[in-house]
């Protein structure tokens, strides 16, 4: 018996060894005695959403019938437990944790940038219902506090042997949770940014009052001028009321010289444009004026941009410019349309244009300034006689000196052409007939380098005689040339003008 069994066993091993070299052996499983054969594995149900138990009073899942990603897949009703592999569960939890971590970091960075802005209270996420399977006992852990967000625990159902691997992607429930979390974070970020933008946005520019049109403003400006209301007229041009040239005194004198009458303003309805012009006509004395006024809107209404005229009086600098008797501190004083007397505070001078005293000037716009570009300050007739007298007196004193060099010029100290050396203290000078006439007709000219000073470019002829030594011999005679005369300057800005020779 034992030999026979051993022989059969040896034969089996030989056969197995022989078969191993040709093909892999097949495994067969037979059910234990008393059990029916295995019916096989059911088809995979696919990716299903997480099971959520509705809160009390809610009989229908909020996700039933929801279309996700464009696919009209109906969500199974509540009560059907769906098993999820541990890998899917872990991936879902990690995705949600990563999304929440990124959102929290963005919120912290934004909060640091807006530390001076009112803090926005974040809403706490609502608690997700815990799924309650109907066909298997609930293996989920104990309930968590209400403010804690957690994913539903999968049922501990054993995976049948031989079943295929589940898909590696997230389940529909995981996608819904991630999308909802990102959406909530996005809304919160939008609220924070919107609050920051609205807090720091600049205030809108105020529009002019709708009760008065731009034409009304121009008419009100001209009416104020005609009535002597300098304060209202100045405000409508955006000027300050502390400028004395734009005060009531100057305007009152202007109206005495040339009243403003016959005011007419065109009304074209151009107020819809931001900046435009309004045409008007009026009279300044006997002169009819027609011009446009540029207007633009401000918070207080329309404002005239070019109603004032700058008078070019730079040639009068340093003399104390006066407009209608009021002193101006600038050489380009701004004035209203009107008539003006231009003068200077120094009584020794008068304002002239092309050699003639300047008459009152009527200006309505910048086009009327031509006469002012040639104005200058000339000595009055009285001051001119004073100038001539001062120069004569100083020159006569200078010519009385016997020195070879004098304060007024006429230097004859250099050797003569024949080598003769002039002898100091022997010079005698006297006015020539031409020089006498020149002194009586000296033409004073303003010193452009120093306001208030006056000089002359007229030459005064003088005869000079001296003694000189030539080859040890003293000779004398009248010189052919008496030398150059220095220029006389008289400073009329001083209380007591004197002559200086330069």
From TrEMBL:
Keywords from the UniProt entry: Membrane, Transmembrane, Transmembrane helix
Bias-annotated ranges (Pro residues): 40-57, 128-157
Chain residue ranges for the region called Disordered: 1-64, 76-169
Biased composition (Low complexity): 30-39, 81-124
TM annotation in the entry: 174-196
Designated name of the protein: DUF4878 domain-containing protein
Organism: Leucobacter ruminantium
